[in-house]
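Retro notes (design track)

What went well: tokenization of the new backbones is finally stable.
What didn't: we kept losing track of which sequence belonged to which structure.
Fix going forward: every design gets posted as structure first, then sequence, in one message. First example under the new rule, 439 residues:
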């Protein structure tokens, strides 16, 4: 009988994509995915450490596994991902949770089958973390979650060192995949019937700077747009300081490249942006937004915002709120600043209480919700091309899909529509989704 595996993933799309590869490798070894953690013969925790909360979840979940391991001594438990790349984290973890069998990091995930094999044969724990990034390993099997849309990582790592961010420490420096490898993967996805590709990287618009061949993110996008069968190309995340006119032109020229840009602003205050080492001012960000909106009038702009950065004043928060009102973000991921050891901001003096941070955070969310609802209200009675992704999450008898700008739409339809572009008229709106009917 086939053995079962279960993977729990925390964090960003990059982690999701890494988990799809772990899944692909396990399927190659003859394992089958388990719906329930308790039934699995191997459990993998793919961890995130971008905020303290993400780490606390991992500890809580590992604690829960102790009893399961006692009941099933042959169960193998593996922990991997960004959290494991932090100095002495692996040692700390194995001391606290000695029942963990395998620990590895972000740079050596491709070696997981070897670790599993050794762990089973030698009946001992395996801990291996590479502290330096290696060359990109191509050709790892991928078991994708969706049959309509696929993530394709085009570059790994980040060189930006925003002062709050742990990512450059745990994902290493920027490394781009070659255009050839990326195009081959997307051609293969197109031939398998995938319709939407999301190009992933911590800073996709830095793509190619480390390659010997002359290629930019804009030129890569243009090449991908020529691949038959792919209907939509998304990409994330873009850094405002690297967003070129060329890229805006390429997006506006190609109908397959969606008119949506995820452009984290982080703060609307130049003072805070400087302390964050973001490389742009409030005015430069706003000018960039105006330029994008001029060239791509129906563009959807989404963002990330951090509240409670050390030393943040009431005036800084008002700057962030007024910037949100001016840009009218289509959606925003909002976070309360979390102190990360090893980053520059870790040593910044912070005299703002948690209570004030939460108060500011809630005010920001309220404004963003109002903006989002008002953006959505403009869609009422409008007709949109929706790429149908599958059954709706809340009501499986209905379908869900997205507009080009990334807005989620729920509507009634038939299963044969999955993977197709359909025309939908919007009949009702919520703050974070739309409701429609097929035309
Ligand atoms: N605290 C809070 N939010 C953070 N992010 C990154 N580091 C931190 C931190 N230390 C947020 C940023 C980034 C998103 C992925 O996570 O907004 O864009
Ligand atoms: Fe972190 Fe800044 Fe790099 Fe984004 S650009 S991953 S926020 S260091």
């Amino acid at each position: 009988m086939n053995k079962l595996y279960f993977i729990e993933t925390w964090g960003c799309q990059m982690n999701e994509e890494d988990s799809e590869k772990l899944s692909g490798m396990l399927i190659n070894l003859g394992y089958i995915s388990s719906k329930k953690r308790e039934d699995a013969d191997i459990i993998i925790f793919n961890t995130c450490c971008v905020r303290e909360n993400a780490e606390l979840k991992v500890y809580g979940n590992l604690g829960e596994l102790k009893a399961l391991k006692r009941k099933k001594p042959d169960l193998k438990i593996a922990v991997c991902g960004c959290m494991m790349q932090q100095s002495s984290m692996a040692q700390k973890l194995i001391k606290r949770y000695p029942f963990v069998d395998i620990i590895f990091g972000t740079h050596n995930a491709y070696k997981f089958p070897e670790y599993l094999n050794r762990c089973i044969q030698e009946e001992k724990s395996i801990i291996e973390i590479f502290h330096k990034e290696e060359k990109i390993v191509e050709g790892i099997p991928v078991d994708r979650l969706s049959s309509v849309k696929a993530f394709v990582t085009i570059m790994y790592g980040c060189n930006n060192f925003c002062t709050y961010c742990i990512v450059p420490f745990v994902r290493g420096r920027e490394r781009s995949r070659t255009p050839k490898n990326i195009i081959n993967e997307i051609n293969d996805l197109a031939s398998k019937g995938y319709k939407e590709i999301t190009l992933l990287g911590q800073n996709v618009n830095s793509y190619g700077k480390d390659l010997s061949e002359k290629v930019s993110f804009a030129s890569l996008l243009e090449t991908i747009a020529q691949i038959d069968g792919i209907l939509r190309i998304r990409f994330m995340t873009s850094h405002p300081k690297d967003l070129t006119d060329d890229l805006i032109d390429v997006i506006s020229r190609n109908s397959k490249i969606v008119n949506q840009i995820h452009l984290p602003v982080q703060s609307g205050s130049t003072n805070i942006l400087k302390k964050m080492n973001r490389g742009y001012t409030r005015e430069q960000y706003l000018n960039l937004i105006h330029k994008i909106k001029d060239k791509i009038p129906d563009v959807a702009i989404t963002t990330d915002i951090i509240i409670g950065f050390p030393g943040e004043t009431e005036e800084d928060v008002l700057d962030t709120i007024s910037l949100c009102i001016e840009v009218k973000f289509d959606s925003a991921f909002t976070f309360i600043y979390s102190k990360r050891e090893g980053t520059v901001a870790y040593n910044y003096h912070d005299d703002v209480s948690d209570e004030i941070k939460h108060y500011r955070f809630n005010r920001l969310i309220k404004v963003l919700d109002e903006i989002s609802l008002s953006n959505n209200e403009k869609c009422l009675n409008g007709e949109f091309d929706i790429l149908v992704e599958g059954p709706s999450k809340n009501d499986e008898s209905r379908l869900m899909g997205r507009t080009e700008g990334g807005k989620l739409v729920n509507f009634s339809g038939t299963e044969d529509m999955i993977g197709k572009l359909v025309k939908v008229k919007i009949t009702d709106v919520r703050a974070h989704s739309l409701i429609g009917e097929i035309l």
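Added context from the reviewer: The chain has a mean pLDDT of 96.
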